[in-house]
Amino acid sequence: MLNEPSPGERLAAALRRSPLYVDSSLASALPAAERRRLLGKLKKAPAPVFIVLVPLVKGGTWTDAEQLATVVHDRLGRDGIFITFDDDTDGLSGREWGGDHHALDAAGAVNIDRTLREAPLAAKLSRVADLLISGTAEQEYDRLSDELSERVNARKTTSPDGTPKANGSEQDDGGLAWALGAGAAGVAVVGAAGFLLWRRRRMASVRREGHGLLMPRTVFATASRATEDQLREQASREVIAFGELLDETSVPTTGERTRTLMARALDAYQAAGKTLDAARGAPDLAGVLVVLDQGRDALASAQAVADGKPEIPPVPLCFFNPLHGDATNKLDWRPLGSRKRLRVQTCRPCARAARDKQTPDVLTDHRDGREVPYYEADPTQSVWAETGYGQLREDLIPRILRGD
After folding, report:
1. What is the location of CATH 3.10.310.50 in the chain?
2. Is the domain covering 7-142+196-203 a CATH 3.40.1190.10 domain?
3. Which UniProt keywords apply (predicted)?
């Protein structure tokens, strides 16, 4: 008897027939005529767009937008823009693989646009498509975010009668009373929009290529094919390049957060150099690149904070082999011979292999005369096994500097 396809496989099969999937329970929210108009518009998008509208229910098949988009992308095997509900059916979420068309910004802009607050689902999806087609998603999100901030600040500094608060006070509860008086719906919209703004800044995909302070992702594409001697040479070049970046930086350290981030960047540089000097093989050389990647993230965030911008969310590298590059998939994984499950992040091929009960392309370490997955080495003798290259513990750099 053939195995039944998984929910993700069923959605992927449906998307191969049409890039728009609507769960039967939501059919009335998007009538057939609106679906046809939306499908016609999607053909003009700069990249493949897949819209997957299914209920997201805690404890159900699909619990959150990230899980849904990641699984469907993995099962579909095609890159593109994936639009889903945003952890409920009141907002939209956008994720993207293989490009940078600001899908998250497009969905976020629709979520905080007051003119679309009561709009039907078809209108919201159509607006997302328009922003993707015009290439103005990021600008529109920033414009609407600025408007939202102005409205929130105005409420904080204005009394119910429209006069400024004494000394610009924000600590009395009059502002709360006024906001409640303005209507619960308005409060909910401001709160949801503020949350979306925060989450967008925390979860937005890092635009790595072209950012001079971040580690170019081509480094890992090259490293994964290198011999040990070539990898050592590359690691040495990257240490030197990071040192030059630090020498040339003009990031002011007057703020506490910039000082913290710059200190982390400097610690990373020192840890990378120390690791390179003592490197015995590929696991140590991969560790050099991991630490440099963390250091560059800290430096770029310090510069962003100094410029009045949000920090750049760090992107971990593949747990099974950091030389694979960015870890785009989250995975509940149990090491062989262990009852404990770990929550790790991996590259897409490794995630697929693990889910299919196959062995991922693991970085190995030479121990006791044989090659073993690096994480199976004695953790008292390998900081990489102990920390999962920084995924299992956050103190990788301090451990290296201590000599662990």
Report:
1. 7-142+196-203
2. no
3. Membrane, Transmembrane, Transmembrane helix
